[in-house]
Amino acid sequence: MIATNEKTLIKLALQGKVGPADEFLPFEVGHNGEPYALPGVGSITYNVRVGDPAFGWTSDHTEPGVSTVCTSSDKAHMRGYNFLSCVGNEVIITSGDAKGKKGVVTGMHGGVEHVLLDFPDAVIEKLTLEDKFLIRAHGQGLRLTNFPDIKTYNLSPALLHKMPMKEKKNVIEIGVTHIVPAGIMGSGIGSLSCTRGDYDITTQDEETVKKYKLDTIRLGDIVAIEDADNSYGRCYKKGAISICVVVHSNSFVAGHGPGVTTLLTTTKGAQIQPVLNKHANIAEILKIGRHRNK
Prior knowledge:
Layout: E1 12-18, E2 28-29, E3 35-36, E4 44-45, E5 65-70, H1 75-84, E6 90-93, E7 102-109, E8 114-118, H2 121-124, E9 132-137, E10 151-152, H3 157-160, E11 165-168, E12 171-176, E13 178-181, E14 199-200, H4 206-211, E15 222-229, E16 235-248, E17 259-266, E18 272-276, H5 282-286
Parallel strand pairs: 12-18, 13-15
Antiparallel strand pairs: 1-5, 1-9, 2-3, 4-5, 5-8, 6-7, 6-9, 7-8, 10-17, 11-12, 14-17, 15-16, 16-17
């Protein structure tokens, strides 16, 4: 087991509610100059879950499962809700017909400050837009004690210890489904914080999509971003590497695409060795989403 400081981490209660679906604009303009009107973020998405493809939906920026926001509308509280939630955290429904049922945090979406949750199909069918969710937040501040140059964000110890990872001398091998060049990262790049939200893999260039097999990305995939430093914000830095999880679907908007939330990052890329592994998806790792009953 990879040594961490997890025994020193605190657990906090966060309370959320379903984030309503919204229409950003009457029409949005895609990268090809064509306007479109499609479903986007928010609400309860019944037929898109972690483990499903990130491409091919008649929608834009679709969030799998349940999209939630803080029960308080105060902007500071909204940021705190997004910041403290970590991928793999346990969620408990505290109201309605599904009260007491448990789920899992699968990612964070910036801008709208959504925290994304997964529950079994039968539970999702019972949810309403009035229901509330208690997240047992645990993970921010997590460190790998034998690798001080590797920083972790948004990652629960529960997920860390189930990820396809092996510690070798001075190196951690991490299973990923795709290796993505930093040069195609878009929306969210330059953000001062990678402890909230996500940033997007741009998919407007068909040749690049084909070269890196981006159109095979699934929601929940763990991917490596080469030459990407997420240590104190998101930037290009040669030799750095970041390990992220895919949290929302593709987009038609210029500079956008599947969004990824940071899990681990280092400026000393030699310390992290990404290894291609088609099973490196949190749906398979945590037995949730499309893999809950498999």
